[in-house]
Amino acid sequence: MGVELIIARYAHLLVVSLIFIRSCEGGLTSSYVRKNGLSSDMPLDSDVFRLPPGYNAPQQVHITQGDREGRGVIVSWITPDEEGSTSVLYWAENSQIKKTEWGSVVRYKYYNYSSGYIHHCTINNLEYDTKYYYVVGSGNVAREFWFVTPPQPGPDVPYTFGLIGDLGQTFDSNRTVTHYELNPVKGQAILYVGDLSYADSYPLHDNTRWDTWGRFVERNVAYQPWIWTAGNHEIDFVPEIGETIPFKPFMHRFLTPYKASKSTSPLWYSIKRASAYIIVLSSYSAYGKYTPQYKWFTNELPKVNRTETPWLIVLMHSPMYSSYIHHYMEGETMRVMYEEWLVQYKVDVVFAGHVHAYERSERISNIEYNVVNGLCTPINDESAPVYITIGDGGNQEGLVTDMTQPQPRYSAYREASFGHGIFDIKNRTHAYFGWHRNQDGFAVEGDSLWFLNRYWKTKEEKYSV
Ligand SMILES: *[C@@H]1O[C@H](CO)[C@@H](O)[C@H](O)[C@H]1NC(C)=O
Ligand SMILES: *[C@@H]1O[C@H](CO)[C@@H](O)[C@H](O)[C@H]1NC(C)=O
Ligand SMILES: *[C@@H]1O[C@H](CO)[C@@H](O)[C@H](O)[C@H]1NC(C)=O
Ligand SMILES: *[C@@H]1O[C@H](CO)[C@@H](O)[C@H](O)[C@H]1NC(C)=O
Ligand SMILES: [Fe+2]
C-alpha cells in the first residue's frame, strides 16, 4: 500500500482543528474540518454486501412498524432465485408457543433489471415491550433474527430513537452505522429521513445497488425498525428509459403502515411509538392546499393526544430551515404551506435530511409574512419546533461545506461532518438530543440539547404523576 493510499484511507481521522467561530449573530459554525469531503462506495466484493450462504437464501431482511400503536411489525426480505416461503415463524422470548404469519411476494422490473422475489409479511397483535425471535426462509436456508416491540404508548414512557439520513453505501456510510450500533446510548428504532441507497447515481439507476444496500443495512434493520421517509433519491423517475412510475423501487421494497393512519399513500403517514407521535411527510409529493397530503396532514394534527403521546415529531426529507448553500430554500414552499401548523400544534422537533451536513435551529418561526408587510425574518417563538438537519449519513456525494454567511440568527449550530443523532425521551417533559460525528469516540457528542416538551412545559402546574 503506497503512502498516498494510506493517507487517503486515514485522512478522515486527520482533524484539522476544533475551534468554533462565533458569528456576530450568536449561532455556532463549527470549524471542525476533515480532509475527505467525498467518499467512495464500498466495492461489490465488500464484506457488508456478502450473500447469505445457500440456494435462494433470504437476504436484505428488514423490519418496520406495521400498525399505528406499535404492536405490529412488517418483515420484508428478498429471495434471489425463486419465490420462497412467504411465512414468518415467530415466538416471544420466554414462550414455547411458535406462531406463523403468512405474507405475499412482489417483483418489479426497472429498465433491464428484474428484481428478486420481494417478500412482505405483517405480524399484528404482538405484546408490547417484548422480545420476539423470528425466522424467514425454510430448511437449510432458514435465518433467525429478533426484535423488541415498544412499550404501550403513554405519557412517561422512555424511548430512544436513532436518527440517520442520506446514508448511501460508502465507507463513511458504514462508519455511520457502526457508530450508531456502538453508541452506548442504545437506539431502539431509527427515524430515517430519506435518501436510502443512491442506486440512482449509477447508470440506468442500476437497481442491483438497491440490493447491495439492502444487504449492507440488514445487520441493523433486521433487528430494529427503521421508520421510512422518502427522499429525492427514491423518485427514480426516468422517462427517457421508460421508467415513469415515481418511487417504484422504493415502494416495492419498503412498505409503510400508511393505511393505519388513514393516509392514501405510503409516502406520508403517522405512527405512535411509546411516548412519541411521529408524522412522516413527503417532500416530493404534492403538498399544496387541497392536495391529498395537505388534507391528511391538517386533519392529522388535531388528532394527536399529547397525554398519550407527548412528543410530536415530524420527519421530512427536504429541510424547511437550512443555512447551507447547497439545496438552499428547496424546502421553502413546504415551509410556507405547513409551518403555521407546526407552530399551532406545538410540534417538538422536525427532522430532515437532504443537505449532507448537520444543523440545528433555534426555536423560531416565520409565519407573519404576508407578502406586503415586510415581516420576513424568522423570530424567536416558544411554540415553534427545533429544526434539525441530519442528512450526514455519508453517501457518495460527500459533505456540503458551503454555508451562507453570516450565519443566520435562526441557526444555532452547524457543522459539515458525517454522523448520526439520538433522541432520547425520558418522560413527558424531558428529552435529550445528541449528535455524534463519525470521527469521535462512540460516546462523544458533537452537539446536544435538552428538549422541554412544547405541550407539557406550559402545563406543568397540572402535571402530577
Ligand atoms: C463495515 O463496518 C463493519 C463494522 O465495523 C466492519 O466489520 C466491516 O469490515 C466494514 N466494512 C467495510 C467495507 O468497511
Ligand atoms: C442493462 O443494460 C446495460 C447497458 O446496456 C448493461 O450494461 C447491463 O449489463 C444490462 N443489464 C442486464 C441485467 O441485462
Ligand atoms: C388521551 O389519552 C389519555 C391517555 O391514554 C386518555 O386517558 C384520554 O382519554 C385521551 N383523550 C382523548 C380526548 O381521547
Ligand atoms: C423527567 O426527566 C428529567 C430528566 O431526566 C428529570 O430531571 C425530571 O425530574 C423528570 N420528571 C419527572 C416528573 O420525573
Ligand atoms: Fe436528498
UniProtKB/TrEMBL annotation:
Naturally occurring in which organism (per UniProt): Perilla frutescens var. hirtella (Perilla citriodora)
Signal peptide start and end residues: 1-26
Catalyses which reaction(s): a phosphate monoester + H2O = an alcohol + phosphate
Subunit structure: Homodimer; disulfide-linked.
Pfam families in the record: Metallophos, Metallophos_C, Pur_ac_phosph_N
Source domain of life: Eukaryota
Necessary cofactors: Fe cation; Mn(2+); Zn(2+); Cu(2+)
Keyword Zinc-finger belongs to the record: no
Every Purple acid phosphatase N-terminal domain range: 58-149
Chain ranges of the Purple acid phosphatase C-terminal domain: 384-443
Enzyme Commission number(s) from the entry: 3.1.3.2
MF (Gene Ontology): acid phosphatase activity; metal ion binding
EC main group: hydrolase
Residue ranges of every copy of the Calcineurin-like phosphoesterase domain listed in the record: 160-358
Record keyword Transferase present: no
Annotated family: Belongs to the metallophosphoesterase superfamily. Purple acid phosphatase family.
Identification of the protein by name: Purple acid phosphatase
Keywords: Glycoprotein, Hydrolase, Iron, Metal-binding, Signal, Zinc
